[in-house]
Amino acid sequence: MPDYIVFDLEWNQGDAPASRNGKTLNFEIVEIGAVKLNSKKEKVGEFSRLIKPQVHKHMHRITGKLIHLTMEDLENGNRFENVAREFLEWCGDDPKFCTWGPLDLTEFQRNLDFFGLPLLSDRPIAFYDVQKLYSIAFDDGKSRKSLENAIDELCLDKNIPFHRALADAEYTAKIFRIFGDRILKRVSFDTYVTPKTKKQEIRITFDNYEKYISREFDTKEDILENMEIMSTKCYLCHHNLRRKIKWFSPNSKHYYAVAYCEVHGYMKAKVRIKKAENGRLFAVKTCKFISPEEMEAMKIKQHKIKKRQNPDKE
């Protein structure tokens, strides 16, 4: 079975983004640390490498204080291209990536792209966001704690300093080992690479909601006119539902509606319009069943937004 790869990155930034061959890099990775766990979540290996900077040659003052590394330390590192190849070979075939928060996998792929290396996939990558899973398991599912605060709340040993890649990977692995199968069903998706075709789109049903990641579109209007994205179909019984609250938007990126299923009740649909790396647009749609009280609260929200957007009609 594939191994779990719990990894952490440290990166540096310059005063301005760097550009090369149409690619832009804000954060240059300077350290990769990882812990490999087998299917039983037993530690079977570790990886730790410093990376010699090629783009941002001066340590940002905040970064240097946070990660306790200097440019002199990094001079002993290897080039990103070599370290990345070594890391991916060490990961093995079809690894299950685990990170604290959603940023590391995106920035790793952005660095791969910038330095001309192959990306990890031609579509969104499923991974475990341990920070989100911690919130689902021990908090409200929405808030996000720092890694050190989570370690403190779980009363786990703090025997190595934080904010170095291998150390933070070790701490993340400690928390990851606690989760049972129910929590691990709540995978996340990295969308540095977005679906280009209908076949690559993501549609997945969790214990209490459905997520759909669409292919790319040229304009927002193309998304809003797409029947599959903007339909309100029950994701459990697959019946088309009549909307009780028509689509409304508090801004130009988020859209909400509520429909009613005679079997399952009120279903809230949310569409977020996001920009892909190439500048095109895609949608992330979530559907979730809500209580009658929550439906009434959505009505009030819609009314307030319409009143704000069209004050003359009131």
CATH topology type of the largest domain = Nucleotidyltransferase, domain 5
Q: Which architecture of the largest domain would the CATH scheme give at its second level?
A: 2-Layer Sandwich
Instruction: Report the uncertain regions.
Output: none
Strand elements, count: 12
Residues in helix, %: 25-40%
State mean pLDDT (0 to 100 scale): 94
Which class of secondary structure composition applies to the elements? alpha+beta
Strand order of the largest sheet: 3-2-1-4-5-6
Kindly, what is the distance between the CA atoms of the first and last residues, rounded to a whole number of angstroms? Answer: 61 Å
The radius of gyration is 22 Å
CATH class of the largest domain: Alpha Beta
Compressed to H and E, one letter per element, the order equals: EEEHHHEHEHHHHEEEHHEEEEH
Query: What is the subunit arrangement here?
Result: single chain
Strand coverage percent: 25-35%
Main sheet: strands, sense, barrel: 6 strands, mixed
Structural features:
single chain; 314 residues; alpha+beta; Nucleotidyltransferase, domain 5; Alpha-D-Glucose-1,6-Bisphosphate, Chain A, domain 4; 2 domains; six-stranded mixed beta sheet; six-stranded antiparallel beta sheet; 30% helix
